[in-house]
Each structure stands twice: as structure tokens, then as C-alpha cells.
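Recap slide: TRAP transporter small permease protein, sequence and predicted structure.
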Amino acid sequence: MQGNSLFLGRLRGPIKSAMILFIGLTLVLYAYLVGQRILSEESYGMFEMIRPAGRPLVQVMLASLSAALIFASLFLSDTKGAIETPPDGFFDLVSVILGRLAMIMTAFIVLVMFYEVVSRYVFSRPTLWANELSLWIACFVFLLAGLYAMQQRSHIRIYIIYDMMPWWAQKASDMISVLLIVGFTFALVWGGYTDAENRFMRMETFGTAWDPPIPGIVKPALLIIIVLVCIQAVSNLIADWNKVPESHTPADEIDEVEIENIRRTLEDKN
């Protein structure tokens, strides 16, 4: 397995073990809390999950969940996808790891919404928190996916004019694009830092029955991640500076690996 490792090497095994350990611990603690909620009057629900102060068991479960997400992101980012651009340098690794975290969080959104659908339409007991929790997670998925897309150079780009330019003009265009990103980032941080700090310091909540601190967490996260996107854009410019110019055709958009997987699936069914 070390031969397929991108950066963990010998740490791949321990990281995997830690991931399994914390996932198991999180599931055990969650099952215990669910059982306690069913059998005991003194129980913890989703309201207490975002207010863990004075509740050691909830704090341990949240810490275990956080550790599980961190180790899972590290482990899953140690392999390269079939059509992925491999990470090249520290900032690329950070972006890939956070991209894997976004992928995991997408699965959490599906689970939350599935729970809400079953609870609402099967048991006629809709929740107060599912929609807001999925919104909360989706905010981070959106932000982290943007960072991952920047590392993969997969944002929408139009090459018709770019491909006709000489090398020096292409590099000038790249520099202008990055300077625009840097300028936008500076303006966003300059204009939004005070507001983000105020929201975070008072941990501004959503103003609903569940009342999660979405504004108090998402606004600072927005500024932090946009700075990471800016750094990644500069890193891409440096990494791609001496690469041979590429010519782009519509065939570049065809995912041969995915087509082959679909073909195999159809053949297996037949």
C-alpha cells in the first residue's frame, strides 16, 4: 500500500487505524446517547449537541467525531483519483485534504436529509434541526469544494482565445487572473474582517428554534477559505509557470475512465 501512497508513506497504516478507532468510538458514543434518550429522562438531543458546555459526554463525542473526520480526510487524500491532478507541494496537499473533507460532508448531508424524510413522512415527527444542519454543512462543502476546484484547475475556463496566444501572452493572462483573485481576496477580507470578528466573538446564532451559530462560524470561515483559495491560485501560477503550453479540445472533457466503468457495469448486468 505504501507504493500507492502520495505523502503518508509509513504513516498510512497508523492513520487508517486511528480513523477506524475514532469512527468506532463516535458510533459507540452516539449509540449510547440515542439509547439514553430513549430510556432516560436526562438525555441529550441535537439542541445539546451545539451547546456542549458542561456536558462531558457530548464534548467527548464531538471531539471523537472531529478526529474521525480529520483522519479520514488524511487517509482518503493519500490516494489519487483517476482524473485528479496530483498534489504538488504543501498548499496542494492542504487543498486536497480539505477537498476530501468536503466529500465526506456531502455524505453527511445525505444522511441528515434521509433522516428528516423518514422522520417526517414515516413517523410524522419532523425535526427542528435537519434543514439547518444540512444548510450548515452545505456552506462548508461549497467553500471547501471551491478550494479543491482551484487546486484541480477545474473551474470553468474558456480557452478559445487563450490557446491562440503566444506563451508570453498566456502567462500575462495567468498573472492578471491571479492578481484579480488577490485583489478580490484583499477587498473581501478588508471589508468583512470586522463583521466576521464581531459575529464570531458573540457567536451569532441563526435565530430559530434550534438556533445554531451558523453566522458566527460561517462568516469567519468564508474569509479564511477565500484566503486559502487565493494562496492556492498563486501556488498554481508558480507551479504551472514552466510547464509546456497545452492545447485544449472538446475531447479533453471526455472522462474515459468513467465511460469504461459504465461499460463494464452494463456488461456485468448483461
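Residues 193 and 223 are 8 Å apart (CA to CA).
Residues 1-79 form one domain.
(End of recap.)
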